[in-house]
Amino acid sequence: MNREDAKNAFAKRSEGKKEGKKERLGNNHVFVFLEIFAGEGGIQSYVQDIFRAYSGLNQVNQADVFLLRDRADCINPFVSGNLKFHYFYDQYPAIARVKLALALLQCLLQKRPKRVFCGHIKLAVLIQILCRPLGIPYTVLTYGKEVWQELKHQERQALSSASTIWTISRYSRDRLCLANHINPQQVEILPCAIDGEKFTPGSKSSELIEKYNLNHAKILMTVARLWSGDIYKGVDVTIRALPQILQIIPEVKYLVIGRGDDQPRLQQLAIDLGVSDRVIFAGFVPTEQLMLHYRLADAYIMPSQEGFGIVYLEAMACGVPVLSGDNDGSADPLQDGKLGWRVPHRNPDAVAAGCIEILQSNDQRCHGQWLREQAIAIFGIQAFQKRLQVLIRS
Description:
With 394 residues, the protein is of the alpha/beta class. The chain contains 14 helices and 13 strands.
């Protein structure tokens, strides 16, 4: 071998070492979730925001993503970049779980990631079993109701053994810690984010005004699941408040967006109260059409008990004033009342008074442009990405 050949061979070996080092650095996180793409919901939207923000971080931060219930043919907007997805859907859930566990164990042994992010409390026991013997730290992501009550003993242990716990609001943190004897210092808050380009102010759609017969109306609006297990959303409370509101503002109509098995009860309630002609049940509206519906509203009303309440941010980003409950995670998006009205969530009198004040008020919280600017400054994608970067580095 001459000197030039030896030089080239050395260069190739050096390049190979660099590539090997890059590969080791490039797989330094692992995410494990139940599902992200198979259905729509608050958790799925939040997790996709995490991935959107993660993808915008330095490309040295790369991750394997394990999805228990998603299929490989799901629509995935994160097909390139620093996220590699692994799908484990099976018609037999137990088999899917075994496949995920084996693949995850292999990944942990081969790549020794810096940290594993457990995307749901239902996966926490598995993550603890796999990570703890290997000395790999893990973080458990929590959202709301799923951790507000006392968990099973093994789940509590998995939670308390985590290096950190993430949750979406101060309220969720406090409920989680109280119910499961967790040290609040162990919990970090990563609030929901709002995409200011997806949700923007604008004029009311004349087509939708005609569709829902909303001409010359003052429009209250709620976006919520209408499930009998979710009556805490407060749609029934708002319907009960309508007679009082109509005495002061007779042109009010209430647009309810969502579907579920509780709708017949809500419709009957409106009939019983004599306001059925004022309540419009719009049914399911796809995410891409929500912005046009928010723009119809003169006020967004949801006297609920939320872990956070991303819908409040969506409404504010569209320049719509908001009303929430006063004993839940909505304190964060509403900034303890600075950005909206907070009332006792099961009190129709308080809801009526709040709605009347919003519709008649010149309060700063009704100024659409100011409201939008505040919401995006605090909860926009850029702020979310900065917070995520801090948490990942910590």
